[in-house]
Amino acid sequence: MNDRVAPSSSFYLVILFTAIIATSLLLAYEVFLVLFLGLIFGVFLTYLRKALARATPLSETWSLGIVVTALLVLMGIGVLIFFVQAQSQMDRMADTLEKGASRLLETVDDYPTVKSMVKSTPILNEFVKGQRANSGNTESNPKANRDSASEQTNTSSMSNGWSSPIENAARAAGQVFQTTLGFFVNALLIFFVGIFIASSPSIYHRGFVRLFSVHKRERVSEIVSATVETLWRWTLGRLATMAITGFGAFLLLTVLGIPMATTIGLLTAILTFVPNIGAVVAFGLSLLVALPEGTTPAILVSVGYVGLQLLESYVITPLIQQKQVAMPPALLISFQAFLGVALGFLGAVVASPLLAAGSTIVKMAYIEDVLEDESDAE
After folding, report:
1. Nearest CA to 249 among 293, 291, 289, 277?
2. DSSP assignment of 166-227
3. Which residue, 58, 109, 279, 371, is most buried by CB atoms nearer than 10 A?
């Protein structure tokens, strides 16, 4: 006699629903990642709205309107300043990067340690090889070096030497919002998702909690609130880090007399939004700009950027994110690398907040509730 009970229809519905969700994540993962950025923006607006409502007699609706308007004005001013600076200094930046590339080749030849480091870094190794190939072609034709036509060819050749890695980096950065919907649609999607969440956060909170059984809803509500708090502290920490590192880079380059200090400072602030990866890209760009000014300014820029990162890692972030779930650096870098390879540059961008939120959920829903371990592990 067979005592096995046939699965109910609801079981098959759950399987089907799970399969649909999994397929959607695989086929449209970029949309989900953009929606996650919209969620982070919504959390940011919600906390600012509540803070303004507490500090003033304004209602939360008016507070949200003022916060959004102020953010749009600040963003408009920032974009205007950035593009005006970038446009006025574009030719100078191209010339400076070419000089920095040549200076980098000389440094690699003079210092064996630097040469070894460059060989172990694929993008730098490709860059140096391209530069050496172009330099060899120029030296093999000394007569051409004496006329202006050859100088133009040499400049173009040098640009081709470093265009490959820089173009690859630019394409990778451009993929942050490069989906089938396009950049502006994604920006609007993030903006309006954030606005809708901030306007009525309790609706989405209660709606998600009601997906669970009645006796679990209180605990689920606690987990959701803790996860939102984690995202808020992560966002606050990133913004503070962006402001301090961007201003610090601008001040450092200005004191050392490095050109394009304002543009590099703004780029440093923007790139710092992505932990670890953004700081490395900003440092590399600043170093290329500083190299034509001499070895000493380049060394001082390197020391200054290392100091900024130490300040961010050991002072700024711990002070702002004291209650945030700790994310070991090795785990964060590994998670960034995994999502970067699997989902592209956008995956690397959302890796840090996603890991922070996931750590909170795992800690409360699994370690505390399933394993019944409520100790605070260091």
Report:
1. 289
2. HHHHHHHHHTTS-STT-HHHHHHHHHHHHHHHHH-HHHHHHHHHTTS-GGGHHHHHHHHHHH
3. 279
Contacts of 201 (CB under 8 A, 6+ apart): 42, 46
User: pLDDT per residue over 254-272, tens digit each?
Assistant: 888 887 788 788 888 888 8
In residues, how long is the chain?
378
- What are the residues whose beta carbons fall under 8 Å from the beta carbon of 318, sequence distance 6 or more? none
Question: Could you count the other beta carbons within 10 Å of the beta carbon of residue 232?
Answer: 18
Distance CA 135, CA 48 (A): 55
**Distance between CA 244 and CA 272 in Å, rounded?**
10
**In this structure, how many other beta carbons lie within 10 angstroms of the beta carbon of residue 296?**
10
Give the residue among 223, 229, 244, 204 at the shortest CA–CA distance from 363.
223
pLDDT digits (tens, 9 = 90+) for 289-309: 787 777 788 888 888 888 887
Who contacts 359 (Cβ-Cβ below 8 Å, separation ≥6)? 230, 325, 327
Residue type present at position 40 = I
